[in-house]
Design goal:
single chain, 191 residues, alpha/beta, six-stranded mixed β-sheet, five-stranded parallel β-sheet, disordered N terminus
């Protein structure tokens, strides 16, 4: 296992994101070919905008390009958003993630999801989401809440409270169901 981690460390974050989709380590040319898919294209542009955050001219260029595709594809994710490697957008269209949100590695997010801040009350702030979290269509996660590792959030769930690791979250109001295998067969090709 240690050898596998050493090998993976040599791959870029973009290669790790694209590995989640294809299960293959791709060259730069192969990644560009995959960018015909809007969800993969957006992930590529998002990572490029993050990569050049500290280079003024390239930062401006990539932010403008990213903004164009945010509008075109309906993904509202900003370069300031901390998202771990192995990020996977299952489908394109209508996705909002607050820039202060922190998301771990090997996370899947479906269309129609909102991950937002709460502006007042006990949960004022933005979510922190762990590793290997699967967030289903039209789910809403709001406020300064912590979502543990290995959590499956069922489509249409509304989450405004902390969720422990190894759980399934279902409903509105949401309920937590403990499950050691919560994301088994949902989070594939982990990096």
């Amino acid at each position: 296992m240690k050898h596998k981690n050493m090998i993976m460390a040599d791959y870029s974050i973009i290669q790790k994101d694209f590995y989640r989709e294809s299960g293959k380590w791709l060259s730069t040319i192969q990644i560009w070919k995959k960018c015909i898919n809007p969800n993969l294209h957006f992930v590529y542009l998002f990572r490029m905008a993050q990569k050049y955050q500290k280079t003024p001219v390239l930062r401006t260029f990539w932010r403008i390009v990213l903004r164009h595709y945010q509008i075109k594809y309906g993904f509202q994710i900003y370069p300031e958003t901390q998202i771990g490697e192995g990020f996977y957008l299952g489908h394109w269209g209508s996705l909002v993630i607050n820039p202060q949100t922190i998301i771990g590695k090997n996370c899947n997010i479906a269309q129609g999801v909102t991950i937002g801040q709460q502006n007042r009350g006990k949960n004022e702030g933005s979510p922190v989401i762990g590793d290997e979290v699967w967030i289903g269509t039209n789910a809403v996660i709001v406020g300064s809440v912590t979502i543990g590792n290995n959590v499956l959030i069922v489509p249409n769930s509304y989450v405004n409270f902390d969720v422990p690791s190894n759980s399934v979250v279902i409903g509105n109001p949401a309920k937590i169901i403990p499950a050691d295998n919560a994301t088994t067969d949902y989070i594939n090709r982990k990096v």
